[in-house]
Amino acid sequence: SGLLFKSSPEVRFFFFFVSQSADYEPFLPVSEKSNPLTRDMDRASPDSIVRMLQACDTQMFRKETGATHQVKVANRVHIILKDPQDSLVVLSGCGTSGRLAFFITVKSGFNRALRQLNRSEIYAYIIAGGDKYGLVFYSEAPEDDPKLGTLSLKQACEGKRRVLFIGISCGLSAPFVAGQLDFCLQNPEVYTPVLVGFNPTHQARDEPIPGCSFTFRSVAERMRALAKRRGAFLLNPVVGPEAVSGSSRMKGGSATKILLEVVLSAAHAATFSSSPITDEYPARLNLCRRVRFSLQRGRRVRYLGWGSLGLLGLVDASECKPTFGAGERRRFRRRNNPSTSRPQGPAFRVSHEDFLDLVLPGLTDEDAVLLVYTRVVKLARRVREKTSNLHAVYHQTDKDTDEIDKLCSSTLTFTWTLETPGMICFLSQQWELATKLVLNAVSTGAHVLKGKIYQNYMIDLQVSNSKLYRRATRLLQKLSGLPEPRSEEALLKTIYQMDELTADVTSGDVKTHIRVARNHKKVVPLALVCLLTGCSIKEAESRLEQKPIVREAVEECLSKPASPLEACNPLKATTLRDIVG
Ligand code: F1P
Question: How many whole angstroms from 580 Cα to the centroid of ligand 1?
């Protein structure tokens, strides 16, 4: 079966390796670098933002020649598909990566396809924090727990004699996934690990993981050594830096979806059908040129959808809280079976009925509603009574228009042709990918326009796990030009709300800092204002209150640094001028 894929010329993989010309920020892994294409995104018009985001996304799509690892992984899945007894393919990740593990397993229909063929289901997923916290809430703390990762893997695989484990961490960084991969490497008789991410292995995170003898990098390097003997596989094409630095929900998430769906589709096609698979994604992406931002003036953005597209709305909206500190996180999806029990609590009230009960009455013309499906005329009519700010993204395979067009102030229609061979089998995955790109562009663009981004850095990020703690420190260092210890000190001061740090705080570990940081807002902007002006936390708070648009507050500080601090810190004065200039 090793020859199976090679002998089928139609099975083509299209990932490529972005040339590593980006040797600016040489100390940062690609996934954390700022993308030169979006450097001035914070000052761009909506149209330019869309173009910048598209240019960034396009970096994912160029033909590659040597996709041997994808082929090998597809072969492993194919072997399991032929003999599924006591076998499992497990996809696992944290945050967006975990949501995509869920999405690919449950929604992309690979298990469903097996059920339809009367075959055993072979796919399972793990999301750090479990469904409740990982899928709907924005809990990012479980990402730091390698033991929890191992435990959940053992539970998922109980009684299995052969497991293909696919660990997803876009930045090759999550301890949760590192723990699982390490466990697989220690139990090779059952587990074959596959690592999916978008950095070269030498850029994997090398920070010690408390209580463990390994780092993510050491695990990745062990896997690379084993890859030659096919004891482990690495799927880590470099797709270029994210549009908003470090925001791996965007390209990282899209590339994960494409990469794994291509691999699994190839395995299914090889096992169950003689029809070849072709790749049509890059051409389809041109359709994203039609993306327009419709949400600039909205107080709230509501996504209304169903099925897998509704779920993508849920995923996109869930990510806005940790990424942009966005307020409410409620998306509305059609409840297929109202009698099924569901978790309780307002965050879970996401059905169309809940939308009608809870949101529709208070909807105003300033709110934006985005329909991510078509032919929901009844619901659209009711929304239209409350707001004209109604938009739709929908997919069609013919040219017919319906009333939705007339009801909406803007519609983005994807028309797909069925003429291209291979189109049908990829159609729903392409709808999903196009929808994901649109939603990511809309939510990112809206937050850029709201002033949440400085250049292409997310300054108001939530310090909710160790990766984000390090990112926050690095950002403060970069923007202030001060050394890392000073930047971390300022971060700790705002986390603990104290102008002078106590010994208790300085001797505390990152885990404790994160726990405290979770209770405070705007910790990074506050720390930056303190660093740049030398003012107290109280003063920084009032400055930010006067200028609620964080970007403007930061720009003000950058253009008018406090003179006493400048005088005592010539290094800083030069760096600031450089940055402002
Ligand atoms: C996982 C993740 C991201 C999230 C945030 C925190 O990253 O949860 O999905 O957007 O950046 O980390 P990774 O392990 O896939 O790199």
Answer: 30
